[in-house]
Amino acid sequence: MHIWQIEHYQKYFDIDTQQALERLLSSITPQQNKSYFNSTIRHNPDLYGPFWICATFIVTVAIGGNIVTYFHSPNADFQIDFSKIALSAIVTNLSLLVVNVNIYFFFFRYYIKRNEYAFLELLCIYGYRLTIFIPVSILWIMPIACLQWVLTIIASLISASVLIVTLWPAVNFGRKHLSALSMLAVLFVHSMMVVCIMLVFFHISDKNIDFTQEITTLTTMASSAKSNV
Per the UniProt record, which residue ranges are transmembrane (predicted)? Predict the structure, then answer.
């Protein structure tokens, strides 16, 4: 079958830099004046952007988690915990598949029965939607619990607004309240993924943080680096 041939997927990686940048920008700024899904993604989805966005997010989460563990274990040597990469990949990809499979089969196959929408089109939209969480995953390294929560909420709201504005014209058929409830369920699953990653890899209660020890550790590292110059 052609789906088992590499050539079948080659077209989904045929995208230039300008198109990739436009889609990255659109993933963090809702396109209110037009149906972005119908005008840009439909019939021209790509997997190149979502692949590298997901891969980058997984790596930044794993590296950030290792850095947080190191700073809160000052007496231990820095070691890379590769299990964090595996765990980050499992959570991210599982959420990606669960959300898209449910949208595709429930909305487009069962509920509104619109077969013209392809699964890869949804995968493209959702993959780009993770863009906002890459810089956030870097900022999560800062050991301030309230800041971590604020970053999580803001990034989730931006990501949710993009998804709603992008997909609503495509799913808004029939009973609107059912469509709205289903979209809320999708947003809930995605938000839970983000919260779980933040709590598992980065979050440390302010009560458990010894800021004196944090400052001492950073000062020692800076002095050591200066003496080696």
Answer: 51-73, 85-107, 119-141, 147-168, 180-204
Residue ranges making up the domain that contains 106? 20-227
**CB burial of residue 159 (10 Å; 0-12, 13-18, 19+):** buried
DSSP state of 202: T
> Does residue 1 lie within any of the structural domains?
no
Contact assessment for residue 35 and residue 117, using Cβ atoms and an 8 Å cutoff: no
Cβ-proximal residues to 165 (8 Å cutoff; 6+ apart), any chain? 30, 31, 32, 36
CA–CA distance, 88 with 70 (Å, rounded to integer): 18
DSSP 107: I
| pLDDT tens per residue, range 112-143 | 565 556 778 888 888 888 899 999 999 999 88
Side-chain half-sphere exposure of 32, counting CA atoms within 13 A: 2
Domain assignment present for 9: no
For residue 132, is it within any domain? yes
147-159 confidence digits (pLDDT tens) = 999 999 999 888 8
Are 137 and 55 in contact by the 8 Å Cβ rule? The answer is: no
Question: Helical H runs in 72-81?
Answer: none
CA 108 to chain centre: 23
- State pTM to two decimals: 0.77
